[in-house]
Specification:
The mean pLDDT is 84. The protein has two domains: 58 residues, lambda repressor-like DNA-binding domains (434 Repressor (Amino-terminal Domain)), CATH 1.10.260.40; 102 residues, Jelly Rolls (Sandwich), CATH 2.60.120.10. With 179 residues, the protein is α+β, with helices and mostly antiparallel strands. It is 21% helix and 30% strand. 27% of the residues are buried. The protein has a six-stranded antiparallel beta sheet, with no helix packed on it.
């Protein structure tokens, strides 16, 4: 299941926070033109771009994929929302039942040889991950950590980071990010 990214909701959040495209562009390092195209649904953001926008608007990533009216505290396996941006082999399975909380909880599935982002990302808060299956290389600032099934890692999200799967099998990891 691949949700359709809702750029209109992005625009509404930006306007509610009384921010201009120029202000969000300055906060993210992205062009106002690209942000406008994303808001109009002309392009999907990359994972790195998406994190930058969420950070600038101070909203969790799952805000764009979970319906606001959801009140059920349980997410059944067959009802889980999946974030799969175009041209990637990475899927984020949203495990957090609320979209206004301080914790994001994701199951990250990365195909072999695939990277979550080609660029290092930073955002507020802290995060920790646990490898359920396969391998995961975490690039954290100037260091690389090769994790295997059962390994875990935690770090401040303000450190530049990205994940990739150097193995031959799908990598499954669970991540929690607190703001």
């Amino acid at each position: 299941m691949r949700p359709i990214f809702n750029g209109q909701e992005l625009r509404e959040i930006r306007k509610q926070k009384q921010l201009t495209l120029k202000q969000v562009a300055e906060a993210t390092g992205l062009s106002a033109s690209l942000l406008s195209q994303i808001e109009r649904g002309l392009v999907d953001p990359t994972v790195g771009t998406f994190w930058k926008i969420c950070e600038a608007l101070d909203v969790p990533i799952n805000r764009f994929f979970l319906p606001s009216e959801r009140q059920d505290p349980v997410i059944r396996k067959d009802m889980r929302k999946t974030i799969h941006l175009r041209d990637t082999h990475v899927r984020y399975h949203v495990l957090t039942p609320i979209d206004q909380g301080k914790i994001e909880f994701l199951l990250v599935e990365i195909e072999p040889g695939e990277s979550v982002s080609r660029e290092l990302v930073t955002h507020s808060g802290e995060e920790c991950g646990f490898v359920l299956k396969g391998e995961l290389k975490v690039i954290l600032d100037d260091n690389e950590y090769h994790l295997f099934e059962g390994d875990s890692i935690g770090f401040p999200s303000t450190l530049p980071h990205r994940f990739l799967n150097p193995g031959k099998d799908v990598s499954l990891s669970i991540w929690a990010r607190a703001t």
